[in-house]
TrEMBL record:
<dbReference type="InterPro" id="IPR011990">
    <property type="entry name" value="TPR-like_helical_dom_sf"/>
</dbReference>
<keyword id="KW-0802">TPR repeat</keyword>
<dbReference type="InterPro" id="IPR044227">
    <property type="entry name" value="TONSOKU"/>
</dbReference>
<dbReference type="GO" id="GO:0072423">
    <property type="term" value="P:response to DNA damage checkpoint signaling"/>
</dbReference>
<dbReference type="GO" id="GO:0009933">
    <property type="term" value="P:meristem structural organization"/>
</dbReference>
<dbReference type="Pfam" id="PF13424">
    <property type="entry name" value="TPR_12"/>
</dbReference>
<dbReference type="InterPro" id="IPR032675">
    <property type="entry name" value="LRR_dom_sf"/>
</dbReference>
<keyword id="KW-0175">Coiled coil</keyword>
<dbReference type="InterPro" id="IPR019734">
    <property type="entry name" value="TPR_rpt"/>
</dbReference>
<dbReference type="GO" id="GO:0005634">
    <property type="term" value="C:nucleus"/>
</dbReference>
<dbReference type="Pfam" id="PF13181">
    <property type="entry name" value="TPR_8"/>
</dbReference>
<dbReference type="GO" id="GO:0040029">
    <property type="term" value="P:epigenetic regulation of gene expression"/>
</dbReference>
<protein>
    <recommendedName>
        <fullName>Protein TONSOKU</fullName>
    </recommendedName>
</protein>
<feature type="coiled-coil region">
    <location>
        <begin position="294"/>
        <end position="324"/>
    </location>
</feature>
<feature type="repeat" description="TPR">
    <location>
        <begin position="244"/>
        <end position="277"/>
    </location>
</feature>
Amino acid sequence: MATLSSAKKSYEYAKAEGTRLQEAQWANVIGNMLKKSGKYAEALKWLSIDYDLSIKYLSQNHCLPACQSLGELYLCLEVFQHALLFQKKHLQLAEDANDLVEQQRANTQLGRTYHEMFLRSEDDHFSVQNARKYFKAAMKLAHIIKESPPTNNCSFLEEYIDAHNNIGMLEFDLDNLEEARKILTKGLEICDERGVVEDDDGRSRLHHNLGNVYMKLRMWDSAREHIDKDILICQRTEHRQGEAKGYINLGELHYRVQNYQEALRCYQKALDLTNLMEGEDALLKQIRQNIGTVKKAAEVMNELQKEEQNLKKLTEDKEDARGRPRERHCLLQIIASLDCLIEKSRTTIAWAKLCEFASMKKIISSELHDKQKLIDSFLVIGESYENLREFDKALDWYTRSWKEYQFIGDFEGQALAKVNIGNVLDHTNNWQGALDAFKESYKLAVRANLPSIQLTALENMHYSYMIRFDKAEEARRVKLLVEELKQQRNKEFHTENVPEDLCSSSNSRSKCATLVSENIVHRNAASRPIFLSSADKHNQQCQVVSFKIDKDVIHYPMKATEKLSIESMKVELACFYYLGLPVERRSDGILPIIKDIKLGGRVIESLETLEATVSEHMGQVLFDACIGGWNQKRLIKLYTDCCNTLCETPNMKVLMKLYDQEMTDADVAVSGCGLQDFSITPLLNALDAYKDFAMLDLSHNLLGNSTMEKLQKVLPGYTYCGLRLDIHCNLFGPTALLQICECPVLVARLEVLNISENPLTDACASYLLDVLEKCKTLHSLSMERCCITSRTVLKVADALNAGSPLDQLCIGYNDIDENALACLLVKLGSLKRFSSLNLNGLELNKRVVDSLCGLASTLPLFELMLRETGIGMDGASLVTNSLFIRTEEIFKLDLSYCGLTSNYALKISTNSCMICGIYELNLSGNPIKEEGSKALSSMLLNSKCCLKVLVLEKCELGVAGFLQIIQAVSGSLTNSYVEELNLADNVKSLHVADQVGLDDDCKTTCQGEFSFIQKVSTAIRKATNLRFLDLSKNGFSKQSAEVFYSAWSRSRPSDSSLYGSRGWHMEEETIHLFLEGIKCCVKPCCKTNSFSCSAYRQ
């Protein structure tokens, strides 16, 4: 801890000095120290500090250690998707820097993550492919570094050893034990040849994993030797996690040889060590599970020993009864005892005992002249030899049993024998022979109508296709048969409430159909974790619900952490359905449009209802997903093809965005999909083949300059006349603008560029000047929150001239002084087409306000956004008056949080030009109170009022003001313009509505006998012109919200083409009511983007 303490002092010193590089480096050192000691939560905090500092203040190369450490930590925490994000970023940075050592390290980590994902899945073909790919790349790079060691004294040795370790463990998990042993042993030989110290962590992993391999090979002495060495190294290096997992390995070894007391002692040591670490809940659970398994096995072993005494007595009785009438009875008793011992031998994995008892059963069955029991004993003898890894003997006995079953015409026995013959052939690397045996077993099981054996045969066929032959399509086809069969068996089980397909002749026979599952969960190797089984992990994270779509059954994972609507779920279901289709059925990119989710003819209208139904049926329920049409999306087909080519799993968020029915084929929007420079590659490859797109929205991702470089290669084949590019809220730096200038297609066709919320800084000034001068069709530029200052704005002003096509500019929330703003406004006044200006978040003093008034009186401004500018009443009045000098209408005016009062509302409500000239008005955050609501109400009731969007969030309207506005919207017979109304956060205490009387006018209008809720509900029902209503943060209860939605629905029939589908969003204090074509909960930066003409419209 002294070292950790000194590291923290160094970090604080660097922070105080403002030395960002050293601050980040010390944060990384501290994070790695904590990670090594098992304090993962605290380590994550420090490594995140390192990453944030590197991203904001340092070059791309400095992000490399942070990405490497975070990738490794997230792998330890089993958060695989986060691990992949940082590991792929690590690899991208290493490739950009041409750093072979870091490339090798990144490939190694990626291989480990995909390896662990494979171990937790049933059919993740992509993960095993990717694990192989990255491990092989790591080995190749390690060999290159070995031949040409770097000059900076960076050793290749650790990476080269790890490459052997990881490939060895992948072979182990694919059951290629001899190959795994050779590779891991080679790793240890390299350690010895190169003089690697005895306490090296790489040696520890190799010993640990060789212990696993030798244990599986039943070479107990060699296994014990390597496990002991692993534990000793971890003890000397104080690696608690490694030591704990070493004891788990040792406990498993003792368990396998039925030494249960020693096994419990080892697991207790592992438990004590794990309790000293943080973030190891899964490991603790696994150890406790293993302790329970050992205790149960010890009990069964005691029972077995007692039954052996009983068998001995029965054998003596048989000798006494030989030749007498009761001899047969004695033989039957011995058979019953042997069946019991066989079962207990399986439970305790005592395979030598199993062989002994099965051989005795063979002898006794012969004496009984019971052909069926005799052949069953052949099958059990084969099973025992298989688990003793005497495969030639196992194959001999299995084949013998198959022939005998064939002779007596027992299809069940033949199917069982064939599936076990397939298992043995797979162990001996005769993979084609194994697959043929599994296929034959399946045919026999189908013929005899034996679903359990069909399932076993199909699962083994799936494994063969996926792992042995790398045939993804065949594996997918077999997997569909497996899921269909499981669904059918679940239905029958819950209908009849009895176990199906019990073996008629011998309980022991059905147990031979699969390799015995060993109850002790052992450690998987490359990165040292012990995990929950895939089934347990799956149940913790999500519940699988089955849907029938067309003729196929889709098993949809409902994740508890995700908050989806029923409509979003329908889209995700359609994408799951498409991904599950064979390649030939995906050729046209046609996806279903799911109209309704039904159960027993009843439509499920909400996700809550669906979840309640699933819970009621304990998950065993099949919903019907009714198809209302088909949606052709060629880009989805291209995207999934490119993912397959690159062995990447398609991003479900990307698929759902591309599925959007309201987006035209020319518009590509993948905002908020968690894309990074590496993970966007399949999409960019698809766009390269797609060609024809006019809008590309990549906002709210984690993309950087590498993506812009790739985009340059995609665009040369682009054929549309204009291009709208939205990349706001990413990690693009100043050189992204340089790359735009270097791309002839972008220069010639870029019309809209939104690069807001990217770390451009003033370093982008000269590049921005080039963009404005070279892009002759650029009419809209947004660069809000880009860390630019007056210097860049002056460059923008210099680039503008009378011939500039610019008509929209957004520069809000940047550090810009009054001189630069005034200069810019003067230049904008010289443009011929300019009509939209966004100065949100900038401080507008009198000089700037005067310049703005001059601009407004010179040009017809149709959109002006002045949110949080501190313009005040006087400034707002001056600017508003100036706006209507040159034009009779302004489409959008945003004066939110500007310190306005009710006087401003009164001003616009009494000015006829403003009444009929404003289409969208945002006065949020201004205390206009009840007096202002009266003025706005009169404006809304005016037949000339053209307002379509009115936003009055947090305006202190109170109960009376709230009612006045919503009643004005609903009460006008002549004005039907208002479509979107936001009244959020205006009523602080609803009980006032019930306890304090409203004024007489309000009582008369609303019929005073109604409560406040009823009045609001009545107004909602009457306001049939509204398409969006926000009532959030007003203290309404869930019951009130349901009343509002009921009123909303009744006045807007779903079968009407005028309204389309209705929707609502209620969560905590949020209450949104909307119609088709309207989005709620849109991020503020996306409400004002140039791709939509309405604040909330899709």
